[in-house]
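Two folds, back to back.
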Amino acid sequence: MFKKPFTIKSQTLLRSSDIRKLRSRVVEQFSPYATCNTTDIASVLFGTDKSTPITAVRIVTHAGRTVTLYVVNSIPILFVDTVDSLNSNRLDEVLFPTVYALWRGVQIGCFFTPKPVLDRLFNGADLMMPGVISHSGDNHPFHVGTVMGVCGHGSLTPLVVGTALISSHDLDDAFQKESVRGKALHTCHTYGDELWAYGGSLDPPVELNLSMSDQVKKVQSLDSLSEQSLSIISNTDAIDTVQQLTLDKLDGWTLLSGDSESDLYSLVDSEFSTDLVTNTHVAKENLEQPTSENNESLVEPVQVAECIKGCIAICENDRLMQTAFMTAAIQHAKKTPHLLPISGSTFYSNYVLPSREWGTTLDIKKTSFKKLSKYYKTIEKEGMIKTKEQAGEIRITFINFSHSLFEGFEVPCKLAGNGRCTNETSQLKKSESETSTVSHSSKQAGGKLSFTNLYMPPKGSSIIDLFQEVNKIHPLPKYMTAHDIRQAIDAYAVENNLVDVNDKRYIKFDILLYDAVRTKNEDAAIANDRIRRDIIQERIISKLNKFYQLKIGDVLQPVKKGVFPMIQISIEKRSKSKSLTCVLNLQHYTDKLQDIAHELRLKCSASVSVNGTPIAPEMIVQGSKAYEVCQTLHEMLGIPIPPGLVAVRSGMKPKPCENKFIKIT
C-alpha cells in the first residue's frame, strides 16, 4: 500500500473529544493481546499526557486509496483502512498499527517466517502459507481480515503489518493435511516503505523487551540465567540472585546497600515499588521452604525468572527515567535558560519523553517512583534540582548542572524524539564545517532578507543550443537571473541583425531562436516572423530549470532548486468559537522552529506545537494569531510583515494579504 510515494491532502489537529474516542478505540482493539492493564495500551502509543497533540493526516496512495494517518510527535502511529466484514459484504474501518507503534510495545498476533521471506514482503509481496513457520493463533485465534504482524524467525520484532487471508483454524488444518497452498497475509505496511520514511526512517530496535507470556510460554534467557541453568536451582542461589538484581540500581542512586530482609523492605522508604517488595519477599519465602533432607529445594524456573524479570524491568525503567531527564536538562534547559521555571508535568511530556533512548518506552507508573512528584522530590533531595509547589503543581525552578551525576554524563546517540545523532562531538564537527553559512538561530538572523530567482537551461533540451551560441557573444554565469537573460537576448539579436528596423520592440526569428520560443499551438504573437522581446523572455524562462538563493544581510545562502517557497499562514475553524493558525514552509528560513514556538507561547499565551515530519513540519498555534506570528518572524528572522495585516480579535479571521515572503489566507 505504501510501497510508492503518497500525496498528503490535509492535516488536522484532533480535538480532545476525538482523542478520547481514539484512545478508547485503541484499548478496545488491542486489549486482547495485552499482558498488562488495558488502560496502559493508549499510554504506550500516545504517551501518559492525554493533552499530547495528535494530528490526523489524510493521504492518497499511488493507487488512489484514501487513508487516514494518526501522527504523534512527527511519528505515524496508526492508520485507518477498510477490510471485508466477516458477517456481511460491507467494508469495516480498522485501525492498523505502524511498525513504530509495534516497536513501542503494542502487541498484535504475528506470523513467524524465515528472514529471506521478509525481503520479499518488503518489496510488496503477500505472505504465502508455505512461508509460515509458526503463528500466535494457539493463544489468540484470528480470522480473515484480522490485523496481523510478521516477525523474522527467532525474533519478536514485527517488521510487516497486514491482514490475515486465512483463519488460524483453517491454517492449522492445511498444515495437518499437508496441503499448504495459497496466501496467509495481505501486506499493507512494511519496514522500509514510504510510511516508514514519513516517520523519519528510524531503524528497528535490536530486540523488543516484550512480555509475550501468552505467545511464548517458555522464559527466554535473562543474562546469566538460561533455561538450562534454571532447571535446578537451590534456595540460597535463587535468593541471592533475586536480591542482587533488586539492589543493582543505576550508578548515582543510593537507595540500598544491604542484602538482608530488612534492607529489602527499606525499598519502601526509598519510594520503591511496594508490589516489587511484596513479590520478592513472597518469592524469598517460597524459596526458603525445604523439600528434602538437605534443605535443598527445586525451584520452578519460570517463577524465579518472572520474579527476576520484574526486578530487571523496574530497575531498567528507573535508569531510562534518569537518563531521559538528564538528557532533556542538557539538551533543552541548559541551552535555553529562559525555559525555567517550568511545570514538572510539562517538562516531562514535552522534553523528557522525547529525550528517552531511541527504541524504548517510558512510563513513570512503571518505575519505582510511580508518580512524577515523588521522582522530583527524590532528585531534589539528591541536590540535582530545586522545585516549588504552586497551585498544587510542582514547578522546576533550578537544575544543578554541577551535580556529580551530570559530570561525565553522555547524551545517548539516538533519541526517540528525532532518531538523529545527538552526540555533542559530532554536532561540534558539523557546526565547524558550516561556518561559511549563516546560522538561522533566533536573534541572530538580523539584516535585510531578500531572495533572487535563478535559472539554468536543462540538459538535453533544444534551448541549450541557443544558450551555447549566446554564451559566445555574451558570457553567462552558471545560474542566470532574468536580467542576465534579457541582456543576452538583446546582445544575440544585435549580433545577428535580428532587431526589427521599424519597431525595435520586436526581434526577427532565426532557426535557433524559433526553436527556443515556439510552442505547439502558435498564436498571433509570432506572426510575420517576429516576436516581442518580453514574450521571448517569458517563453525562454518558462523552459528553464528554476532555482533560488536567499540572502540574509550581506551573506548569501546556498543555491536551492525549485521555486522560492513562501510562508503559508492559514486560519482554520475547528468549531464556532475555536480556530487554529497553521504555518507551513517555515523550515526553509530557519531550523530553530522550537525557539520560534517558544516565543509564540510567550507572546500569544496560547498552545503552540510543531507537527509533521522534519522535511515538512507544520506549526500549529491555538487561536487566530496570524498577526502575532508575522510579528514574531519579523523580530526573529527579519521577515517583513505583509502590508494591510492588522491584529484582530480572538476568533476573527484576518483579511487575505501577502508579500514576497508571506501569504495569509
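---
second:
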Amino acid sequence: MQPKTNCQAEPLAPLALVERAWVEALAQVERAWADWAIVELRGAGQTNDQVAEALKRRGYSITVDAIRGRLKKMGQKK
C-alpha cells in the first residue's frame, strides 16, 4: 500500500466550512458593531447624515437609507 500524495489527499471540505463560518461570524460582528454605533450616535443627538459620516471615518461604508432601514428594523425611530 502506497502513502497518499498531495494530489490524492482528502478534500479540504471541513476546512472550507470552518472558513465560511468564520467569515459569516465576522460579518455578524461587523453588523452588530454598526448597529450599536448607529444607536449610540443617534442617542447622542446625531442626525442620520452625521452618523453615516462618522461611520465612514471609521472605515464602515453605509448610506443614510441603510441607517434608516437598520433603525426601523431595530424598532428605533428615524
